[in-house]
Write a structure and sequence with these properties.
Length: 317
Amino acid sequence: MSTTGPDMSGRTRDDLVSRPWRGAKRHYDLFKELTIGILVVGLLTLGLSALLSSPDDTTVTLRQWSRSAPADFIATATAELGGTSDSAQYGPPYNSTPDATQTLGPIDLQSLSGVRIPIDTANDFVIEPLKTLPVPPAAIRVWTAASDAQRTAWTTDYTAALAAAPDNDPSRVKKGAYGPVPALTHALLLMAGNGALDNVIQAPGQFYNMDYTRGILFLGDGAYFPGLAQAQHLTGDQWGVMNETGNYPGQSWLWLFSFWYQIEPFSSAPNADLLVVFVMLVLSVALMLVPFIPGVRSLPKWIPLHRLIWRDYYRKK
């Protein structure tokens, strides 16, 4: 097809292109607009970052925890030995603790994957790291030789003694039959304070590691790490808050997930996580099916918001 052929009115395209513009004209300086845009956006970004940005905190380490809250560290290590910590009783994918999973009737999504990351908190968080020391504590042999019932009795009694001690101070615990538990937990505290525990607990025998699961679980079992989250308002009780303290904006799309946890029946349900997942799944499917849902798909016709947004187009139409 010729680009210079006549149209239905007999005029050629060259004639149309060469016709002078008789409409409104406006002075436009591309470089001036670009310069102003960069300066304005740059200053606005810096100003809002100074006013609204989140703190860029350093990584929380086991060394920091052991030095800042040694009593909490000892109490958590005792719970790991006794199998009473949150990680020890979490269920899949870390262990097969009975009745630990969240269910919705017969639906048990948590158990579908099974125990893919097996974690024995006593061995993985306490005993095995202590074995890597140049001179492992002799208390390890006493612990490994004892029966499960004896270990439970030791850790139960020591946990109660720590709770009763002034300020939960391990050095002020009353004397009792705690077996090797005080020696093991104190040795782990010293190991963490020297910075040796952080790498060992992550991946024993490996120099390079990118899996921080064990360290995060150990930190989360204590009160120190949740306390830091509470101080930063990152516990999830403020829906809509961007829960991230790095250099980048938080995930704003998470506000809808967080919202459901603030209202009933989700806020008090023992299987709240599973309920929220199903609600979001239903909402996501509904969003994808909007073009096929009678009534909903006609909303743009009944509420012509698009005509307000593109009013110039519809004014000329």
